[in-house]
Write a structure and sequence with these properties.
Blueprint (H helix, E strand, L loop, with lengths): L1 E5 L2 E5 L5 H7 L23 E4 L2 E4 L10 E3 L3 H16 L15 H8 L23 E3 L9 H9 L6 E3 L6 E3 L16 H5 L5 E3 L3 H9 L4 E6 L20 H11 L3 E4 H22 L5 E2 L4 H10 L13 H17 L6 E7 L3 H6 L5 E2 L2 E2 L3 E4 H10 L21 H4 L6 H15 L17 E7 L5 E8 L1 H12 L7 E5 L16 H6 L2 H15 L9 H11 L5 H7 L6
Parallel strand pairs: 1-5, 10-11, 10-13, 12-19, 13-16, 18-19
Antiparallel strand pairs: 1-2, 3-4, 3-5, 6-9, 7-8, 14-15, 17-18
The protein binds 2 iron/2 sulfur/5 carbonyl/2 water inorganic cluster (HC1) and iron/sulfur cluster (2 copies).
């Protein structure tokens, strides 16, 4: 332990504690911009300076030492912080009122907190075109403050290294190497960089106006479906606590917006389990292409394509649930409704930016029609609800439409890391046993740790070594061990985003300080498992609408028609 003095308060902290953390322990707030705990700790922006003796030092990297006397609130400190922020503002495209981060911008609130009312430094400004090349992520360099938080997330957490600092001096910008368009880089579209960005320099490629246009078109039947993780996060955009479930309100809001049908992607998650569970049982029998790797996360699929192309055959051939649902809407449902599928518009509300990219992939279409026409993030949906003037918090709960409105708890848990594996095990267990069993909760695959392993013995004695992974840095580690032959699994679930879709790049942005106090991943995944518990049916194969669609239309899991509509192949 070391003893230090902060603003006249004597405190004892563990050796190695930074002054920033020590101050937090005693309730003294020091502002930061570039700092992201455990991800980006470069002490470059200097918004967190404190006075130590005669010197001003950045507190985020300054380790507390015995006898240190620190002052955080002196004229010198306040002036220095103001200068830091004013200099950043002098090279910032300040269009706060029309910025999509208005009121959710760390730079804006820091400038306000520091009482910056006029700008002393006006000079040359960085100029660059906005990069709209990627269907998922937009880059606006003129708003970038060079904090490096996105770079650190992409490199240290995801190990993708799609973006970095390029050029030098005043010309320094953040972008892919050689300033290539983002679409031509190795970016896998996860959007974790958006969650890390303190300002509006990175955001999703918006499709809000496309949806309003389609809804206004009387010739179109506009159908929407919502991912499992959206319902446990959307409420945050309307001031509800993190981890509030708003399923019924979300459905009501979608009807008010003007969608003709409101379906649940969770239904197709159940369907994915039927297809993928069957695929797993078959691969276990033949021993081919093991481990079976989940393919519902498009960020992960692209990561495999770039980094482990020799393992593409290990990916499940199942399309992701919302793509399966899109394919069924344009076939089974279109027939039932007697509508030409060309006049149906399928919109998916997803916690994910990578799904925007995924929906445009050729591999995910049928008869020259995209299975899903548009993907909106949770944030874009919130924006539409606000634009429509809907009083979200006071909405009465409504139910999804059928035939794609009924899902089991297994479908819901897809939204959290470990959910796909658990949902699959619930079904595979009973399919293999040929009878109903009590096994519902597979706690070994739950929790937000980056890598979890479980060995599951099936009722027929077969053993499945499973790895459940979230975050691509963790996935890279496991894949390298598999390639070296040091690990042997039969089934692997990977979600690109830390925590899984609940923490996807399209989810509400939680400011950095709240993130330091509440683990958003834990709060949202608790809501997911609560929703699972609240449902009467918790195993995909017990979903009556799933049974019906096989009886009426698909035949059986992995049938010829299933393959045509619900499966695909990713090839190098
Ligand atoms: Fe996900 Fe999925 S759970 S990928 O994890 O398989 O985005 O939420 O919709 O498709 O169902 C995301 C979430 C989502 C799909 C499902
Ligand atoms: Fe990196 Fe993901 Fe951002 Fe692409 S979307 S730049 S992969 S963090
Ligand atoms: Fe999208 Fe989920 Fe994958 Fe993140 S983990 S990229 S939110 S599918």
């Amino acid at each position: 332990k070391v003893k230090i003095m902060i603003d006249g308060l004597e405190i004892e902290v563990e050796k190695g504690t930074t002054v920033l953390e020590a101050a937090k322990e005693v309730g003294i707030h020091i502002p930061t911009l570039c700092y992201l705990k455990n991800v980006n700790e470069p002490s470059s922006c200097r918004a967190c300076v404190v006075e130590v003796g005669p010197r001003l030092i950045a507190s985020c990297t300054l380790k507390a030492e015995d006898g240190m006397n620190i002052k955080t609130n002196t004229k010198k400190v306040r002036e220095a912080r103001k200068t830091v922020v004013e200099l950043i503002l002098s090279d910032h495209k300040r269009e706060c009122t029309s910025c999509l981060r208005n009121e959710k911008c760390e730079l804006q609130s820091l400038a306000n907190n520091l009482n910056i009312r006029e700008l002393r430094f006006e000079g040359e400004r960085t100029r660059a075109e906005i990069d709209y090349s990627s269907p998922a992520i937009v880059r606006d360099i003129e708003k970038c403050i060079l904090c490096g938080r996105c770079i650190a997330t992409c490199s240290n957490v995801q190990t993708v290294n799609a973006i970095g600092f390029i050029n030098r001096g005043f010309g320094t910008i953040v972008g892919p190497s050689f300033d290539k368009p983002l679409a031509d880089s190795v970016c896998i579209n996860c959007g974790q960089c958006i969650l890390a960005c303190p300002v509006g320099a990175l955001y999703e490629h918006e499709n809000i106006n496309d949806i309003w246009r389609e809804i206004e078109n009387p010739d179109k039947l506009v159908v929407v479906q919502t991912a499992p993780a959206v319902r446990v996060a959307l409420g945050e955009e309307f001031g509800l606590p993190i981890g509030t479930r708003v399923t019924g309100k979300m459905v009501a809001a979608l009807r008010k917006i003007g969608f003709d049908k409101v379906f649940d992607t969770d239904f197709a998650a159940d369907l994915t389990i039927m297809e993928e569970g069957t695929e797993l049982i078959k691969r276990l029998e033949t021993g081919e292409n093991l481990p079976l790797m989940t393919s519902c996360c498009p960020g992960w699929v692209k990561f495999v394509e770039h980094n482990f192309p020799n393992m593409l055959e290990n990916l499940s051939t199942c399309k992701s649930p919302h793509e399966m649902e899109g394919a069924l809407i344009k076939s089974y449902f279109a027939k039932r409704m007697n509508v030409d599928p060309k006049n149906i518009v399928v919109v998916s509300i997803m916690p994910c930016t990578a799904k925007k990219f995924e929906s445009q992939r050729e591999e995910l279409s049928n008869q020259q029609m995209q299975d899903v026409d548009y993907v909106l993030t949770t944030r874009e949906l919130a924006q539409m609800i606000k634009e429509a003037g809907i009083d979200f918090v006071n909405l009465k709960d409504e139910e999804f439409d059928n035939p794609f409105g009924e899902a089991t708890g297994a479908g819901v848990i897809f939204g959290a890391t470990g959910g796909v594996a658990e949902a699959a095990l619930r079904t595979v267990f009973e399919l293999v046993a040929g009878k109903d069993l009590d096994t519902v909760d597979f706690n070994a695959v739950r929790g937000i740790e980056g890598i979890k392993e479980a060995t599951i013995e099936l009722p027929n004695g077969a053993v499945i070594n499973t790895a459940v992974i979230n975050g691509l840095g963790n996935a890279r580690k496991v894949m390298e061990l598999i390639q070296k032959g040091e690990k042997n699994y039969q089934f692997i679930e990977v979600m690109a985003c830390p925590g899984g879709c609940i923490n996807g790049g399209g989810q509400p942005i939680v400011d950095k300080e709240t993130r330091e106090n509440i683990d958003v991943k834990i709060a949202r995944s608790k809501a997911i498992y609560d929703e699972d518990k609240s449902l009467p049916i918790r195993k995909s194969h017990k979903n009556p609408y799933i049974k019906k669609i096989y009886d009426e239309f698909l035949g059986e899991p992995n049938s010829h028609l299933s393959h045509q509509l619900l499966h695909t192949n990713y090839v190098a």
